[in-house]
């Protein structure tokens, strides 16, 4: 049911990510200011964008679940949020490495994007204790969906608030990840972003297939037990 | 719907008046946290950023207690079944619970803010009014909307006393940012109003989003 097109998707992911890494190391020039360490940008930023899109997608799936009452949408929402949290760990780790290398500190509070990502990440971590402390499957799906919607609406609000708090003390002229990248860097960045997005979708489909299969197995076992 | 909401609100206020559970505990908690901050920071009086930060962190932590107790009567004594069996719109339930929380927070602040002025604040509270009223009212509204939603979300979980703080506090980060930033210039030695409109605007945006969102999704909580 969920595994349709998984094989070509996985192949496309492997090709795109290999191409992205080849471009990062051999095509994109070293940054004049930060040197080689700036290349972590091609992992960190796509990961952050994909994770945030995954959180928002989780909210959209949750709306579909509450509207239709179809629990497969809840499963989609759960897996999207689950994967985004895993990516979120990667975002915070690569962000800390980048900050240490270019500013000399593992954590900087005046980088609004990183700080608001931390707040969002902390909020979404509550998804697990909330979801798994509700036993009734129907209620579990409904409450998780309500959380996913509220948290999805919180993401942009939080970004606005944190950015306002930071610009208040540190006016900034340009966003550093903005569109003023030179052409070869931008192309590398876009290929990396595409690779990360494909990786997310592949893993999402794979996890959905696995969850669906184990749920069916449980159902069959129950039926066998009843029959015996 | 308004009549139903008013009835539930009256019931909650009556319970609070008779048992005196949430509000006195929240007040006591706030004053204890001031004492903790006094020793933790080793300062006799605060002003500016430090003062507004201490005040707002304390108030938000006290709000956690109120949110955790908001559905206590329903959960512990089975009142939820009665509420769900009665032909009452869930929106009425949300409005009643959020209003109750708003009134509790206001009652707490009536004591906790003057106590802060007395115990910790250097410049005195006089210069902070009436702007502080607006910040407190908008802040309370946001906390009340999010608090009622979080309280209902956590009410049916096994570990609700654990879920409430870790779910509520990250959601309140924008409220803390806006309230602390708006209050900070009011608590300086020479109180000024600086960027007040900008932070009140952010608070209003937050309040509108979460009131609408909570009304929209509350129907799906506390069913069956």
Number of helices of chain A: 7
The total tally of domains of chain B equals 1
Number of helices of chain B: 10
Give me the strand/helix succession of chain B.
HHHHHHHHHH
Shape of chain B: globular
Average pLDDT across residues of chain B?
Answer: 88
Structural class call of chain A reads mainly alpha
Summarize the largest interface: chains and residue counts.
Answer: A-B, 31 and 32 residues
What kind of oligomer do you see? heterodimer
Question: Mind summarizing the main beta sheet of chain B?
Answer: none
Strand content of chain B: under 5%
Integer average pLDDT of chain A: 86
Question: What Rg of chain B, in angstroms, do the CA atoms define?
Answer: 18 Å
Give the low-confidence spans of chain A: 171-175
Distance between the termini of chain B: 20 Å
Report the strand count of chain A: 0
Largest sheet of chain A: none
Rg of chain A, Cα atoms, Å:
20 Å
User: Alpha-carbon distance between the termini of chain A?
Assistant: 29 Å
Strand and helix order of chain A: HHHHHHH
Morphology of chain A: globular
What does this molecule look like?
Chain A has 228 residues and is mostly helical. In chain A, 79% of the residues lie in helices and 0% in strands. Chain A contains 7 helices and no strands. Chain A has helices at 6-27, 41-68, 71-103, 112-125, 127-132, 137-169, 183-227. With 224 residues, chain B is mainly alpha-helical. Chain B has one domain (2-220). Chain B has 10 helices and no strands. The mean pLDDT of chain B is 88. At the A-B interface, helix 4 and helix 6 of A face helix 7, helix 8, helix 9 and helix 10 of B.
Distinctive features:
heterodimer, A: mainly alpha, B: 224 residues, mainly alpha
List the helices and strands and how they pair.
The complex is a heterodimer of chains A (228) and B (224).
Chain A: H1 6-27, H2 41-68, H3 71-103, H4 112-125, H5 127-132, H6 137-169, H7 183-227
Helix pairs in contact in A: 1-7, 2-3, 2-6, 2-7, 3-4, 3-6, 3-7, 4-6
Chain B: H1 2-19, H2 22-41, H3 48-69, H4 72-76, H5 79-85, H6 90-119, H7 131-155, H8 160-171, H9 173-183, H10 196-217
């Amino acid at each position: 049911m969920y595994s349709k097109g998984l094989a070509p998707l996985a192949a496309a992911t492997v090709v795109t990510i290999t191409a992205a890494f080849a471009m990062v190391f051999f095509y994109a020039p070293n940054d004049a200011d930060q040197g080689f360490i700036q290349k972590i940008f091609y992992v960190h930023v796509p990961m952050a964008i994909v994770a945030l899109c995954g959180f928002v997608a989780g909210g959209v799936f949750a709306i579909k679940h509450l509207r239709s009452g179809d629990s497969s949408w809840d499963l989609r929402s759960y897996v999207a949020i689950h994967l985004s949290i895993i990516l979120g760990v990667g975002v915070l780790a690569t962000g800390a490495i980048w900050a240490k290398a270019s500013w000399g500190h593992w954590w900087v509070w005046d980088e609004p994007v990183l700080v608001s990502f931390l707040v969002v990440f902390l909020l979404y971590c509550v998804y697990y204790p909330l979801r798994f402390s509700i036993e009734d499957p129907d209620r579990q799906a409904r409450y998780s969906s309500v959380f996913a919607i509220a948290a999805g609406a919180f993401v942009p609000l939080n970004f606005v608030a944190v950015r306002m708090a930071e610009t208040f003390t540190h006016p900034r002229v340009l966003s550093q990840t903005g569109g003023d990248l030179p052409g070869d860097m931008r192309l590398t960045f876009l290929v990396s972003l595409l690779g990360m997005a494909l990786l997310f979708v592949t893993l999402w489909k794979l996890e959905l297939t696995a969850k669906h299969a184990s749920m069916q197995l449980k159902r069959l076992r129950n039926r066998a037990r009843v029959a015996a | 719907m308004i009549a139903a909401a008013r009835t539930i609100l009256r019931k909650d206020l009556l319970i609070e008046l008779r048992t005196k559970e949430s509000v006195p505990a929240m007040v006591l908690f706030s004053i204890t946290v001031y004492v903790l901050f006094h020793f933790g920071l080793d300062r006799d009086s605060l002003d500016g950023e430090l003062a507004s930060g201490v005040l707002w962190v304390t108030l938000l932590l006290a709000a956690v207690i109120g949110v955790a107790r908001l559905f206590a009567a329903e959960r512990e004594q089975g009142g939820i079944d009665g509420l769900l069996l009665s032909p009452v719109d869930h929106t009425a339930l949300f409005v009643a619970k959020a209003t109750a929380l708003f009134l509790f927070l206001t009652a707490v602040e009536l004591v906790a803010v003057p106590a802060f002025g007395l115990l910790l604040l250097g410049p005195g509270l006089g210069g902070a009014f009436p702007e502080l009223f607006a910040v407190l009212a908008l802040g309370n509204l946001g906390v009340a909307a999010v608090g009622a939603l979080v309280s209902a979300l956590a009410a049916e979980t096994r570990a609700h006393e654990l879920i409430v703080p870790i779910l509520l506090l990250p959601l309140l980060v924008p409220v803390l940012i806006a309230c602390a930033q708006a209050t900070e210039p009011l608590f300086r030695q020479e109180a000024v109003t600086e960027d007040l409109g900008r932070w009140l605007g952010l608070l209003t945006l937050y309040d509108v989003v979460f009131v609408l969102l909570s009304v929209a999704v509350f129907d799906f909580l506390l069913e069956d």
